Amino acid sequence: MLELPILGASLYVPANRPDLSSIAAGEKLSNMRSIIFCTEDAVTLADLGSALICLAEALNHLSPADDRRRFVRVRNPEIMRQVLGMPGADRLDGFVLPKVTAENFETYMDHLDSRGNSTHWVMPTLETREIFNDSSV
Q: In this structure, is the dihedral angle defined by the CA atoms of residues 8, 11, 12 and 18, taken in order, positive or negative?
């Protein structure tokens, strides 16, 4: 039987925070069991570039032995591809996939499959009109 760890409540943290590296390293918010570094709704399109720079730096501070679960809420499949290419991305537990549809889910999964034996978890966010329309399923 597959035993999954208890996730607990997750704290969303905008990926463009100047203290993101200290959060990632556990120096700040060390009592959180699950942290989601957000590149989507918490970051404006104008700030996305700086958020990705902050995130890349933060991934360098992730400890593989950390008991906290660390995820990235990516903005779209292209951002997921970029994050997967960052050093330290292998230390992430997974990704939160926003606004998942039948069309984009396959692209997200293709990016994970292209990494070989990915052990990343995915948390799809079902929030689009398509998902709640019986005729589109």
A: negative
